[in-house]
Specification:
homodimer, D-amino Acid Aminotransferase, Chain A, domain 1, 2 domains, six-stranded antiparallel sheet
């Protein structure tokens, strides 16, 4: 039977109780889409993993090691989800990191179902500003856990603001909207995650000559938006048909154009 | 051989790779001093664990269960350190918590040595303000890991400020200082941990009729302080003989008076 997870390349479904991942969340991770038996946008995902690891001063194994692990777990599934975790090794106790060496954990699971377009709600919980950790997909995710308690039936994704009331992104996604032909997305320099799909969509928009900007705007900006969508590595571009009580065309024309450029498996 | 850790009361030194502690830091913990074979201030520690658990909506096992676990691990050690962790059980995937049930982890180790008084340095890294998590000893401790990289030989404890430059506390302790006969300590309502020893010292000071206040003050306040000390459950009251380049009497007279009231094993 194929195992569901590997730790440092060996079948395992546990980590040590002294893991700095458990004690402190001292690690980073990636959620990746498996497609046609391979890892979608693997290069980009690895580069982001490496960049995040560098922010925490963690050694990152080369891409081919991650891909070999993932392939070992992914026998014959056409689609799926891989999770790559990189957790600092434990040496003695205390907060101070004494090594850059990290444990490599790979898990594979099935792709969750999703509806064609999303209803968005703005969460009451606000994200703390911490530039030292902003943009990084690290293992300190209690804010997301707390915010997720606000998920109600009928909401597909929660939007998060910072303490100044500026939009940051979705609970599990980055946020985009279109206003007067411009593609807008929140800054993620004080909190939030700079997702690989966010970067890809910005590149695609630039390639199409679409005006774009990172902005600090509150939820009111979405009430005037012509189109709204969220992005991540699993869903690609996910158009919103509703934000709070406001209905929207989903997908809007620019959203469709970007999705067409993004290509399969994300055509909408 | 006595095991060093128990998971849900059974000898174990691993947790599942799907642990929400590893994935999100979805849990709380306590660090406790073992003294004369027992847990020091066990009632108070449990009440704080329960209060923190409630903030995250986690079920907490009764004190006697924690004490029984700890006793099973602590054969004949006069002193030591116990760590109690409470981690939400995993059910399915995603941030949203679907259960209040939690895994109970108990570890016992030896008491680390410490010098009689501490040299304090103010860390450059500043703590993010998140009222929803402030005061709780939860498993999201990446800020502490990042700050701990600033520890240099000659510094015994780092002091942390928030993004507004207000003192919050020590990396592993709460902070107190004396100014004109008043005992001052930072608010911990926006970030930081409200330690059990902090609460105990404030109660002791009140009992002695010492004027006290929670304050928002920057590091400059320490340059005018008559006495400074930090507290936690392991060290009790730890007088500072230096903050940055400024020397201090350690312990000062009020620090000594408080330590006398706190009693053994924390007499200084």
């Amino acid at each position: 039977m194929t195992p569901a997870s590997l730790v440092d390349g060996a079948p395992a479904d546990t980590v040590g109780i002294d893991s700095r991942g458990l004690a402190y969340g001292d690690g980073v991770f990636r959620t990746l889409r498996l497609q046609d038996g391979g890892v979608l946008h693997a290069d980009e995902q690895w580069r982001k993993l490496a960049a995040d690891a560098q922010r925490l001063d963690l050694e990152v194994p080369p891409l081919d090691v991650w891909l070999a692990d993932t392939a070992m777990l992914n026998h014959g599934q056409a689609t799926g989800v891989a999770k790559w975790l990189l957790v600092r090794r434990s040496e003695g106790r205390g907060y101070r990191p004494t090594t850059r060496a990290a444990q490599r954990i790979v898990q594979v699971s099935s792709l969750p179902p999703r509806v064609a377009s999303a209803a968005l709600t703005i969460a009451a919980l606000r994200l703390a500003a911490q530039p030292a950790l902003a943009g990084i997909k690290h293992l300190n995710r209690l804010e997301q856990v707390l915010a997720a308690r606000e998920l109600r039936p009928g909401t597909d994704e929660l939007l998060m603001c910072d303490h100044d009331g500026f939009l940051v992104g979705g609970l599990r996604s980055n946020l985009f909207w279109v206003h007067d032909g411009r593609l807008l997305t929140p800054f993620v320099d004080r909190c939030g995650i700079a997702g690989t799909m966010r970067a890809r969509v910005l590149r695609i928009a630039a390639g199409l000559g679409v005006a774009q900007a990172e902005v600090r705007e509150g939820g009111a900006a979405l009430m005037a938006a012509d189109e709204i969508f969220v992005t991540n590595a699993l869903v690609g571009i996910w158009p919103a048909h509703r934000v709070e009580t406001r209905g929207l065309q989903a997908p809007g024309p620019l959203t469709q154009r970007l999705a067409r450029e993004l290509g399969p498996p994300f055509l909408i």
